[in-house]
Amino acid sequence: MTRAIIGWESEDPVPNRYYFNDYLNVRNGRLHFEDLDLAQIFLDGGGEEGLGQALRSPLEIVYLPIIRYRIAQMQRVFAEVIAEIGYNGRFHYTYASKANAAEEVIRTTLGAGAHHEMSSTIDVDIARHMIQLGLLTPDRMVICNGFKPAGSHYAQNIIRLRRDHEQVIPVIEDLSEIPPLLQSGYHFSVGLRQKSYGPNTTEAEMEAANSRFGLDLQAMWKAADYVAAAPNLSLKMYHYMVGSQLVDEATFLSYLRPGIELYARLRQRHPTLSIFNFGGGMPAPMTLNFEFDYHHFVRLLLTAFQQTCARYGVPEPDIMGEFGRYTTSEHGAHLFKIVLTKDNHSAKPWYIIDGSIMSSFPDSWALGEHFIVLPLNHLDKPFQQVQLGGITCDSDDVYPPKGSETPLYLPVETDDLYIGFFSIGAYQEMLGGVRGSKHCVLPEANELIVDRTNNGRYQFQLLPGQAPGDVLRNLGYHV
Ligand SMILES: Cc1ncc(COP(=O)(O)O)c(C=O)c1O
C-alpha cells in the first residue's frame, strides 16, 4: 500500500497557480478553496469578494457548492455508462445522513436531487422537518437502515413518517422488524439487508462473516417470503453493503459479486424486486494521491449486472448507492493558527495549533486516518518538515498520526501562519460531537458556511461557536 500524501512535500516554495487537487490552489502565496482566499478570512476580510471582516481562528468551513458538484459528477458518471453499454435500469443517488447530519448539508443534498438514507429515530425527525419545509419532496425515497426492533422509537417513528410520505422504505435488518410493519395499517415497500459486510467473495465466506448487520441467507429467503405474503408489504430493494472507502475498483466489485448473483436469484422468485442498493463504500479523496476511477467502477458494476441478469433471465435492476463520505468529505475544512513553535530537541520542530487534532478529527487519532493539511499563507516561502501538536495536554494530540510514514511540510515562516485540515467533512464532526464539552474543555469553534449565489458570487453565514460560559454550563457549573 502506498503511503498517503497529505500536503506539499518539498522545501521549495509552492509555485504560483499550483493546483493541489481540483479545488485547492495557490495564488500569490495564499491557498484558495476554488476562488475563496482562505487567509483573508483571518488577515484582512478580503475586499469585494471576501467576508468584509476578519475572523478569529480556529474556524470550521462548510463549503456547500462542492457537495453539489460531487452529486452531479456521480449522476453524470452513471448516466454516461448507462448510455454507453445500453443498461436497462436507472441510478438513484442517495445521501447517507450519518456522514454529516447538519441542516445545511441535508438541505444541499436534497436540493441537488439526492434521495435520503437514515439510521436512527432523530434522523426521522430531520426527514419530517425537511418534508414540512418542502425540501424532501414526494418523489424522493427515504431509506431507513439501522436496527428498528418492535417497540423502539425508531420503528414507531418510521411508521408515523409513512403518514406524511409515501416513499418510506424500511430496510429489514432482522426478522423481528417485520411484524410492526405488518401491523401498521400502511402499505410499505421494503428492502432486505443481506449480511455481507467485509471482503467476502463467496457465499460461504459471506455466511461466516462476523457481522451484526443484515440477514443470513436462510433468514433472507424467509423474510422475502413473509413480505411477499403480507397484504400491505412489497419487496422492492435488496441491500448489499460491503464496506467503506474501498479504493480499488476490481476489489470493490469482487466483494459485491455474491450479492449480484443473489439479487438475480431473489428477483426470479419475487418479481416486485427492482432496486439493488450497494449501500456505502464509494471512496472519496481524503489525501492528495487518491486514485479511483469512478467511471471504470460503474462500468464494471453495470456490466456484471447485465451479464448476471441475462444468465438468470431477469431484468436489470435500478442501482442505488448510499453515498456518505463521497458526498460530504470534501466540503468540510478546519482552519487553525500556529500559535507556538518549539524545537524541544525533537527530530522535527513542533508547530502548535490553537485547537485539538484529537477531538476535531477522531479518525486520525483513533484509526491513524490521514487528511490533507496545507498552509493558508506563506506558500511562496521555503518549507520544512514539522510535526503538528494540538493545544491540549494529551500526548496523542499530534499529526501526522503516530506511526505514520507520511511527512508533513509547512512554511519555515510562522509569523501569522494559518493552516487548514481539508476533506474532514464526513464523520469527523459527527464523531467528535457538535457543541458538547470536549477534551481539555476547549470550546467549539465558529463555523462559516460558504455558498455561491446563482451568479457565482460568494455568500457567507457565520454560526457562532461556544463561549466559555456555554462550556461551563454544559458541565453543570451555574455561571
Ligand atoms: C447502511 C449504510 N449505508 C451507507 C453508509 C455510508 O458509507 P460511506 O460513508 O462509505 O459512503 C454507511 C456507513 O457506515 C452505512 O452503514
What does this 3D model show about the protein?
This protein has 15 helices and 22 strands. With about 475 residues, the chain is α/β, with parallel strands linked by helices. The chain folds into 2 domains: about 25-65 and about 330-475, Lyase, Ornithine Decarboxylase, Chain A, domain 1; about 85-325, TIM Barrel, CATH 3.20.20. Strands 4, 13, 14, 15, 17, 18, 20, 21 and 22 form a 9-stranded mixed sheet that branches. α2 (about 65-85) packs parallel to α3 (about 105-110). The chain is globular, with a radius of gyration of 24 Å. The structure holds pyridoxal-5'-phosphate.
CATH class of the largest domain: Alpha Beta
Q: How many helix segments?
A: 15
What ions, cofactors and ligands are bound? pyridoxal-5'-phosphate
| Largest sheet features | 9 strands, mixed
Number of domains: 2
Radius of gyration computed on alpha carbons: 24 Å
- CATH H-level superfamily title of the largest domain: Alanine racemase
Mean pLDDT: 95
- Percent of residues in helices comes to 25-40%
CATH architecture annotation name of the largest domain: Alpha-Beta Barrel
Bin the strand percentage. 15-25%
Number of strands: 22
Query: What is the 3D form?
Result: globular
Given helix and strand content, the structural type is: alpha/beta
**CATH topology call of the largest domain:** TIM Barrel
